[in-house]
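Subject: Interface between my chains keeps coming out wrong

I've been trying for a while to get a sensible model of this assembly. When I model each chain on its own everything looks fine, but I need the whole thing in one frame so I can look at the contacts. Pasting all components below, labels as-is. Any help appreciated, I'm running out of ideas.
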Amino acid sequence: MTDFNRTRQAFDLPSGITYLDGNSLGPMPTSAAERVSRMMSEEWSRMLITGWNKAGWYAQPRKVGDRIARLIGAGSGQVVMGDTLSIKVFQAVSAARAMRPDRRVILSDSGNFPSDLYVAHGLAAAVDAELRVVAPEDVEAAISDDLAVLMITEVDYRTGRRHDMKALTRKAHEVGALTVWDLAHSAGAVDVALLDCDADFAVGCTYKYLNGGPGAPAFIWVHPQHADKARPILQGWMGHHAPFDFDLDYQPAAGIERMRVGTPPVIAMTALDAALDVWEGVSIDDLRARSIELTEAFIARVEARCPDLVLHSPRDPLQRGSQVGFRHPQAYAVMQALIAEGIIGDFRAPDVLRFGFAPLYNDLGDVERAADGLARILANQSWDRDDYRQRADVT
Ligand SMILES: *Cc1c(COP(=O)(O)O)cnc(C)c1O
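Reply #2:
Try treating it as a single job with all components included. I did that and got this:
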């Protein structure tokens, strides 16, 4: 059994705070600060340029990728780190589309995160493809034999609705299309089985449930059967098979390394590497069971105490990720009032209160405090203040 008391203690959470926003930014593992500080004083400062070899900075994107692979049902040597998720979406979708040159359609759904859709739209304009966007519940029916790429975010960032990766991948393959799965709200939150689902490409960020810190590098996975064929399109020197030959002709590295672009963010990746230590000894099946326990308890307690709120997430836990949304016409102000009481979730336009549950550090006490705080604020209307209606830059 996974010891979630141990994992909770690994985080440096401010006292008096109930943190239910790890689906936007995971909290800091105490060891991350120590590790980064050591990297600065012992590696950057002392080794200077030799750190690329001596401290293993150059190999770090693949080594850290191997640690993520275990959490998403992939094998070692199949995942590499770097850049932001938006860039990794571009790389995966462009590579997949290039493998189906006689087809034009990229299919996604309106529950996808806007950045993924913007990237796919920009790519479609550049390569004369078409981005087709349907409602999340219509994706399966929209898979047709003109499809090049199915680009889906497995867990909807607003509702927590979870797509069936295995079924959609099978259907896409039946019509000859390739799949790109965005795991932004899946990695470290639900049980992901990329190889078992026979997915083609996957990408994700590491600052949400993986707790790598603000701006932590993204990851990309390519199925081993495609990894030596997929063209990176963003052909950077670090994805070249011999970067230090400084050859003027681009030749992709073997396998997943070709998806590297430029110099990796070593400091950020060091913080992420420390954050991944917390996952040692965590069983993903235990994590999923615990996540379901927490979200079920939260829904039950909120529904029993807050008649004004409407559940905006699937009721069936098997169709839900590790977050819960409730709708309220004044959701923004309600969330500001909650945050003022030390209960941190977030707001997603137009009217959703969103709460992420991360079993690594959330427990049933957090569930109770958040549900009871919400009930109190709605009952006494303490959210009804002008300053709580002022929108900040980041919501
Ligand atoms: C969080 C998130 C992003 C953010 O992309 P960045 O490039 O890391 O800012 C993109 N897509 C999805 C689905 C997300 O949930």
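Reply #3:
Confirming on my end. The chain has two domains: 4-28+281-389, 32-277.
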